[in-house]
Amino acid sequence: MTNNRLALITGASAGLGAEFARQYAEKGWDVALTARRADRLDKLAREIEEKYKVATLVITQDLALQKSVDSILHELKEAGRHVDALVNNAGYGLPGTFFNTSWKEQAQFIRVLYTAPIELVHKLLPGMAERNFGRIINVASLAGYAPGTGGHTLYASVKAGLIKFSESIHAEAKDAELDIHCTALCPGFTFTEFHDVNGTRDMANESPKWMWMEAGPVVEAGIDGVTRGHPVVVPGAVNKGVATLTRILPEPLGRELMKRQSKRFRKMEND
Ligand SMILES: NC(=O)c1ccc[n+]([C@@H]2O[C@H](COP(=O)([O-])OP(=O)(O)OC[C@H]3O[C@@H](n4cnc5c(N)ncnc54)[C@H](OP(=O)(O)O)[C@@H]3O)[C@@H](O)[C@H]2O)c1
């Protein structure tokens, strides 16, 4: 048992989640890593323990399962640990339209990207309030700002929902004068396994390189933002520019632009 603070990171087996784990560990935090691929989590845990000399806890869970959040919290309790920072990061894109995807796929998507993160916040907040310390990062997306388009139907909706949810939790904690910060991190294109998993790597490779960020600076902006108490963080100058455009463009024009652009990175088929 250590006296270090603990960060619980979902989707820690790859991409932004693994980078969150490394950056929190580098700051001297213990990390609890959760995702489905146990081998990846174990490897990362060994790397982090060796390099940063902090404690790690691996919790293998599929967030699509109804009981997954309770199971994660149970394992933390068994280990005698409470959560000081929660990074709701696990996610993926679901190619196809609403017509050609099954309800099972959509329901799992909502569960992993929206219900599970919100349930984790709801169940961890009372402890954070009692200790008067909590840092929550909800990994949303620039897509949460942009108008909805055809393909990957619910992606923009759940990410927009996470942004609003984060703003509300931020406001409620402030009203209650608690040292709890909640931040929605809104990355644009980021080099991770995201586009390999949803089968859009070839399409994504055609977007200009200046639109892309490495995971390191994205995560750094998220941790810095939650530390400072910013409710929403858009990392990088290009992404900030896009976020501003979505607010100032007339809605029909914004929709038309997004429709044209999204054809380059959203798949309408789901095979
Ligand atoms: N990369 C981008 O361009 C980009 C842009 C904006 C926002 N984002 C957001 O950033 C977050 C992280 O994505 P990433 O880019 O780092 O993608 P990634 O490299 O594919 O990593 C996704 C992570 O989510 C986990 N995950 C997926 N389904 C899960 C499930 N059912 N249960 C538990 N864990 C699950 C994966 O672990 P397992 O497969 O081992 O379960 C993996 O660790 C996502 O919320 C994504 O929407 C990404």
CATH superfamily: NAD(P)-binding Rossmann-like Domain
Write the element-wise H/E pattern from the N-terminal end onward: EHEHEHEHEHEEHHEHEHH
Q: What fold name goes in the CATH topology slot?
A: Rossmann fold
Give the strand order of the largest sheet, numbering strands 1, 2, ... along the chain.
3-2-1-4-5-6-9
Number of domains: 1
Largest sheet: 7 strands, parallel
Secondary structure: helix percent: 40-55%
Query: Which structural category do the helix and sheet elements fall into?
Result: alpha/beta
Distance between the termini: 47 Å
How many strands?
9
**Count of helical stretches:** 10
Ranges where pLDDT stays below 50 over 5 or more residues in a row are none
Bound molecule types: NADP nicotinamide-adenine-dinucleotide phosphate
Give the integer mean of the pLDDT values.
95
CATH architecture label name: 3-Layer(aba) Sandwich
What's the gyration radius in Å? 18 Å
Oligomer state equals single chain
Shape: globular
Residue fraction in strands = 5-15%
Task: Describe the structure in brief.
This protein has 271 residues and is α/β, with parallel strands linked by helices. The chain has helices at 15-26, 38-52, 68-78, 103-131, 153-175, 194-197, 201-205, 215-228, 237-248, 251-262; strands at 6-10, 30-35, 56-60, 85-88, 134-139, 180-185, 190-191, 213-214, 232-233. 51% of the residues lie in helices and 14% in strands.
